[in-house]
Specification:
Blueprint: H1 9-21, H2 27-47, E1 51-61, H3 62-75, E2 80-88, E3 91-101, H4 102-113, E4 118-126, H5 132-136
Antiparallel strand pairs: 1-3, 1-4, 2-3
Amino acid sequence: MRTSLNVPQEVLDEFDETWENEELESRSRAVREAIQEYIERHTSLEGIEGPAVAALAFDYEHTLVIGELHTVQHEFESIIWTTHHMHHGEWCLETIFCQGSAMRIRELVYQLRDFDAVGRVNVMFLQPEHDPIATST
């Protein structure tokens, strides 16, 4: 299927530079991969049920939100196994590794996304008891 998109020139230039540096075969291939990643990122959060393991990575402006973030992390301590924190000027990068119910992990993600001083929250889920090969056939 063919489609057309309106993309600002500077975004397209950066996109082209990125896929060319990664030595992908074409812009079409890069767009297909980007669309697939977008779908996975936005649908997997809602689609996972039961026990899960997750890594949450997020950035935030330290001085505006650190106290509130610590409060949220204490509220979710039953599913948070470990965290890793890195300072970069006024901004910080943090990774939280979780294990527990997917519903509870989602609640944590939504609370983190609620903060204005949090730039973005990326999530990667694993389901130890879920075999994607067995269920895809």
